[in-house]
Queue: 3 jobs
Job 1
Amino acid sequence: MARPTVPTRRADILLAARDVFNARGFAGTRMDDVARAAGLSKAALYLQFSSKQALFEAMVGELIEAMLPRAIPADFGATPAAVILRNFIQFMSLRITAPDMAFVPRVIIGEGANFPELARFYHSHVITRGMTIVERIVRHGMERGEFCSADPIQACRTIIGGVLLGAIWKNTFEPVGAEPIDAAAMAAAHADAVLFGLMTRSAS
Amino acid sequence: MARPTVPTRRADILLAARDVFNARGFAGTRMDDVARAAGLSKAALYLQFSSKQALFEAMVGELIEAMLPRAIPADFGATPAAVILRNFIQFMSLRITAPDMAFVPRVIIGEGANFPELARFYHSHVITRGMTIVERIVRHGMERGEFCSADPIQACRTIIGGVLLGAIWKNTFEPVGAEPIDAAAMAAAHADAVLFGLMTRSAS
Amino acid sequence: MARPTVPTRRADILLAARDVFNARGFAGTRMDDVARAAGLSKAALYLQFSSKQALFEAMVGELIEAMLPRAIPADFGATPAAVILRNFIQFMSLRITAPDMAFVPRVIIGEGANFPELARFYHSHVITRGMTIVERIVRHGMERGEFCSADPIQACRTIIGGVLLGAIWKNTFEPVGAEPIDAAAMAAAHADAVLFGLMTRSAS
Amino acid sequence: MARPTVPTRRADILLAARDVFNARGFAGTRMDDVARAAGLSKAALYLQFSSKQALFEAMVGELIEAMLPRAIPADFGATPAAVILRNFIQFMSLRITAPDMAFVPRVIIGEGANFPELARFYHSHVITRGMTIVERIVRHGMERGEFCSADPIQACRTIIGGVLLGAIWKNTFEPVGAEPIDAAAMAAAHADAVLFGLMTRSAS
DNA sequence: TATGAATGAGATTTCATTCAT
DNA sequence: CATGAATGAAATCTCATTCAT
């Protein structure tokens, strides 16, 4: 409750950094800009982060953590896999296309080659974690006889691919004139498309 | 007969540029490097391209052109839509993950915000074109009664999302330790996942 | 009391800039040289002046301000116009041919086409102001019956032309072997030449 | 009569060079521009002129020659000095402010420090020659009793200063908004101003 | 802790000049 | 003679990073 002002300082910087990196990319961002946006002197930045790269990594790390689904039920019980999967797709789609998150994939993809640490981090914390969840859901559906037996790993890719495309669309193509899409609607349609491929044909 | 050297000059530069931009990204690439890679002086570069950005755009434009499916049959005749779609997914997946192409999406996504022209170009020439083709295939399947009636546009996104993920995977995550995937195999699985959602339930 | 160092920085640079621009002209001056002459790094220059041109303009502006006659009596009273004019010519001649000023006209004339702002500034602040003063003096003489009625504007040109020629002579021709002239003597002779054309013939 | 085409080539270049140097000054002029303006390749320029500086000097030299009063009567006979002086001032003023000549003083003054050869040339061929002529006229007037006895050299400076100011005015200040002056009218007024200073007071 | 001032090490871009054809 | 193509050698400007205060 009485958290001192220090952690706020750091948070302010990260917030400002997010905005500037978001708007300009890594190379295009100047420490000057971040400092000004955070209302600090450039030198003060360096008291908190030892380099531009460190700042960038800290900021992305923070965002990634915030993006991960906090709680996934340990046991799915009797909930139909279709329902769980729908919810998951909805959840991820909305989260990943939220204005303050959408640039994470862009940054990871765009700067991944220059920041292998970041790509590794993202891969192991987001992709792998997300795929594990999806895989569990798929297996759950297979065990319940809802889903036909497919390679769960491959299925994951189809599922995640659609979610990712939504984020890219919003971030990369909408600003240059692509027709805007409604994240929730797209998620629903994506779930439909995916589900009817996974469900046994006898279902219905 | 005796003038094939001239047009080569430009192509040499573009080739070298592709390699360097591929390895280092836009900001990380120095004109010096491109020049050296092309076996020319820096100044000679500027004889052909008026700026780093112009060079970059020319190179990406060239690659994009090369990546587009040259010829799609105007009329699908009686070929089953499932076959056509499978082929298309295969074709695009292989093309987009080929070592000399795979970085195009990365670059578009990563630098799109800094080069709106590029994003626009990519959107209208690749994405839109690709989606139109997929849409035609889907409609073809619906007319033939192969595919259940779904929103073709949304279906496109699921299809293309999976293809794109393949390229990103190879480019961004494999270099940092993600388990390598076989493009052809993934394409086949993606087609499966997608197809069984599109086919009418009566097909059994 | 303890902050006289700050305003010095800018002045140091301007002083150094004056010397280098004086010796080498605008195009011939490298920011490196100015920096070295000011005992600073090149980057420090850009902290104060956003471009070479800005530095140049600031420096010339400063010099011009310094060159202008600070105070001209608002009312000439009963002082003979001939005396006033003589003094003015002396004053301007000495000022304009002083070693640290003499290059101003050269620069304005030489680079005026490339820096219209500078030419405009010089025209409105120096030429126009100077001509206004001369005009007032001439009218004063006419009112007093000292000077015959001539077109004061045209007379100004003859007067100023001679003063300007002195500066040009010192700067452009003396360095290549023209016989050196004494600024004060030339000013006196010029005043003579001019005065006896303005004075009424009855004065004798 | 049957002068071959060769001298034309050279003349074309000099003409083009004059225009470009006129518009952009020495440093601002690129050999490319001159070549294009002359309708030649850059390399062809170098067949005629060994360097940019050589080209510049040749061009200025040519102009200066063209500017000099071709013929001054060896003996003034009984023509009144006032008339001769008036004519001379008119002649020089018109010549020096002609659009294709006016930039010569600007260039000499502006680039003189960087091209001492040029300044020397101009000084000895134009200034000195002009001053000699004026001096002869003044002495002629003194011998005839028209002019009072003044220092002829100093008088020359007043005379030439006014002429020079006209050229500078047209070239440097008119383009930035100074009120345009009529060369002939200014010359006449200048002659008046000067003459009435030189003539004996008894002349009436 | 905070900052204003400073800088080293480039980066892009330009241009006079050359040379093979 | 003429040229298209090439280049070496700068010059301006930028920016992450440091340091005295």
Note: Chain D is about 70% helix and 0% strand.
Job 2
Amino acid sequence: MKCNHDHIKPEEKTEHWAPVLLQWFRTHRRELPWRCGSRRDPYKVWVSEIMLQQTKVEAVRPYYDSWMDRFPDIPALAEASQDEVLRQWQGLGYYSRARNLHAAVQEVQSVYGGSVPDTKKEILKLKGVGDYTAGAILSIAYGKPEVAVDGNVLRVFARLYRIGDNILSASVKQQITALAKAQIPADRAGDFNEALMDFGAMICIPKHPRCEACPLTAYCQARRAGMETELPVRLTKKHVPTENITVVAVTDAARWLIHRRPDKGLLASMWEFPNVIGSGEAGIRAVRDLLQRMGLTVSVKAAPIGTIKHVFSHKIWQMTMYKGTVVSGKLIEKEEWQWLPCQAYTTVPWAGPHGKITAMI
DNA sequence: AAAGCGGGGAC
DNA sequence: GTCCCAGCTTT
């Protein structure tokens, strides 16, 4: 595909369509829980922006409500335990978001006296806050003239300016950031950024853009060229490997043996049933060996109690679950291994599909 | 620059 | 099945 720069004439580059978008926004603005009130609470904007990373509005809505119920302000979140924070986030995905937000809120509480900083330099230092989130908080909560370039903005601009290069490349993101800066109204940056999000989610959608309802067709170079469904261009994803996982649910005196995953990596710090990578007899033997090293001799029933296929963005877990009972021994005291009373299963943050296993047994 | 990191809804 | 979402961090 031919690319971009050559097609853009100078007068089109500077064409000023922001007022048209803002006019559309006036009547089509989505009512969302984090958009209530004329003055926007920086903490609420922050939480919503973190939750919305790579996550659709409808998936966030219940989590946001429940989160604000439990952690209504910065002090409440700063005081919470990591397990409780992860428990609130359980099921939303990308759990480093929760851990980073927790740590960053604690820093805001201790370093900034509980006030979210209002400069790009300071806010970018907070864990989990990158270019996009910094721009979103500064513009929406503080009215600063910052851009917030996310997936919606990349798609919208790729179409408006007929940019045929991979929108995920650093150079295209840089180019679009410059185009957005030239477009942003100094006094209504927050509205402009939110308008772009709503526009991207409702009109300039990925597959079949609703050009018949679009207020910006007069400005859209992709539409003019009949290329609106071919843009934007995205990098194709590679094959995702499958891992066979053997899980053994070990019960003893109405308790389950659970293990907390390492504090880095996939599903960090969340709880799981004893498991290993591997399947069949070898998988079962490996789990028994693992538990033996923890001081427990366990017998495992040969018949599996179920299977789960769990798809991540970069790998697939093909899990087979077995039931086990303690024959002898005592669990070696370690913080990451615990006996969990069965009725307390809602109190720990479960690692992905492991939460479902509680229902199977 | 590329890979790691979740889960779900739309098609 | 595929696509991709109000991305950030680490390598």
Note: Confidence is low (pLDDT under 50) at residues 1-13 of chain A.
Job 3
Amino acid sequence: MTPEELSAAITACLQDAVASGELNAPAAAIPAEVRVERPKNRDHGDWATSIALQLAKPAGLPPRAVAGILAGRLSDIPGVARVEIAGPGFLNVTLDAAAAGALAKVIVEAAEAYGRNDALAGHVVNMEFVSANPTGPLHLAHTRWAAVGDSIARVLSASGAAVTKEYYINDAGSQMNNFGASVLAAIKGLPTPEGGYPGGYIDDLAKTVLTDHPDIRELTDEAALPVVRAAAYQAQMADIRETLADFGVEFDVYFSEQQLHDGAIYTAVERLREQGHVFDEEGAVWLRTTDFGDDKDRVLIRANGEPTYFAADAAYYLSKKDRGFPEKIYLLGADHHGYINRLKAIAAAAGDDPDTNIEVLIGQMVSVNGARLSKRAGNIIELRDLLNWLGADALRYSLGRSPANSPMALEPDVLKKNTNENPVFYVQYAHARTAAVARNAAAGGVDRSAFDAGVLTHPTESNLLAQLGAYPSVVADAARFREPHRVARHLEVIAGTYHRWYDACRVTPLGDEPVTDLNRTRLWLNDATGQVLANGLGLLGVSAPERM
RNA sequence: GCGUGAGUAGCUCAGCAGGAUAGAGCGUCCCUCUCCUAAAGGGAAGGCCGCGGGUUCGAAUCCCGCCUCGCGCACCA
């Protein structure tokens, strides 16, 4: 029995108690779903609910009396061995071993599908993240957004949403000219121009461009700049895409800002004007974002006729809307949190609901060994170097296991360790161990030809089954709250629970002992655990090794 | 000043749609392998959950105020 099934059964008991008139409470007080929790203390049963405490006041009864009304019905649920009323009115449910253990077979048979759910079925989402400027390589901050954004997309998909992963390329504006001019200067052996981009990668791009355009030096600067700019841009984007691919991140759409400048921006401004939120002042065209909670109104078209970056944002938002995405998620860095209100204002001005059609997630910065990284400090670390140094698994896992909106410290030395101290190792090791146990079982003549859930009676087996059973709801919560770190943390719990089970319960019998159905049934549990660990690691974009 | 994120064990951090005795890893101190991965596991010690109010059967969690730290407040991109 899964926690969801138990929850549904308890909900039915509650509805029955209300329908029978035994429990009188206003309909509004009756939850659509009664949540069950795994108690920390084993004396409190396998699953517990505080529903009686919540209903006591609306029902006008002492909590323990409400619990008493429900307890009898709960006892009749098939698979429930015992129901106890504890403390102020908790209902503690103990399952019989066969009902709890059946889950192992369910998981093995569901395989990759275990954990997938339909909590977000029908949601069509545009998930934008990374969107790093194409004027240089990806660095550590982008790395976090890449890891978190991709995992958010994966848990959303696992929960039934239709997700499109999108990268917005800021390839318009003066920065691209500065970028092109920097590469051109490098080609000519000149110093970095004023406002240009320094760095060794510029020299590398110069070499690449020179290889493809050997005659470039013979052109005038005016003629060469557009060629160099375009070629360097292509090379840089290729590098970004390749690096992301090596990081396990693939985008469905790379959206170029430049394409908005052919008219879409002006069309967007006119559409917003028709909605009544645009005005002209001091020669510029403004969006009245203050109507929607922004601090000040924002300029769309400057007095000199040039559109602002914000105007492109507006056109881009409308593009997402026109392309059929009711839900638009933006994952931005902490230095962009001031953009939340104006992005929401765009949504509202476009006639959308800023509470449901747009969602702006803010990710905090990453420090390395306690040091903050910044361009000014000159200690930027590139994603490519991080990959070479630590590997994609350690990077993705460590960046994915913390909530994106809390600052985190990366400790490279720890990530190279093969001990409990390194969480990615801990979880991957547990998976590898399930594989090793399965290999030994095969060699020892243990197979899955029998399954008798009733024999899984050891406390560590009950714990392991409970944690495996909680996995689908963890995935659903991770999707609902856009917090994939919940999956990582739960995998760590499963890994620990598995290691304890492994120490207490053998799958393959010792020496000359015969193979029994207990051994065979435990193999199902072992394989179920490996499956859940692999599924969870997959959501985080981390591999599940068979051996370590 | 305004906005925004953070403050939980010695360290790095979970927990925050309110629940029973506050969690993990590391570090410290004990303990467990002739047999599936000891790359693991068990136990001990270690907490005014930043401070002060409030809400209620119950607050680390929700509300208000304050303190400290990070980040941001362009007709830049």
Note: The radius of gyration of chain A is 29 Å.
